[in-house]
Design brief:
By secondary structure, this protein is α+β, with helices and mostly antiparallel strands. 41% of the residues lie in helices and 23% in strands.
Length: 230
Amino acid sequence: MKGGPGGGGVAVFKESAWGLTLFWVACGAVVGGLVTLLAEWLVRLSWAPLQGPAKLLASVPEPWQSIGSVGVGAVLGLVVGFIAVHESLSVRVSPDHVVLGIRDSSQEFGRDEVALAVRDGKQLVLLGPDGMEIAREDCNLPWTRLAEAFAAHGFRWSDEDPYREEFRRWVPGMPGLPHGADALLRARATAREKDEGAEDARELRRELLRLGVVVRDVKKRQYWRMPVGA
């Protein structure tokens, strides 16, 4: 994980691509080795499921059985590592702006746009002067150093969302939402249940923000609030 002041008073934080990739390769290799042990255990149990694949794997002679299992696990770990690097968040903080980078794209916010930077669980949230949320991203960067960087560059920081108590749990058809918001929240709930629905959920969050609705996720549940004047 990298982070620190850059030239011109800029603090840059990003996860190490090599470190993240090697971590997942190692995890994949360990899982591959455990699969071999699991297969040998399953073939001894007459009632166990997956007997066919287990017997096939157990029939491969050593050392090729272990080498193959660990190798396949490492390759799968490499794929997961590449995905993790692609999904990881980078943060640049300077006296004039904040830049959040993710998925080969970036969002830049000027000083007058960012009233408060917040740690909300495992997410970094940027709030505007009116209390409207302007960014919310999953963050695995060092929180203490992030807070120090924001404060050092003149941005306000909070370790807890000051509007946390204003969020209400969404249920279909509940009153109080602007026209069209309930349908967007329904669509977003469906997208979040799909394995490949993360990008759809992000896009629907942006659509809700245009209606003045801030969304916060807690496990499978959605919570919402509307800033005063939205």
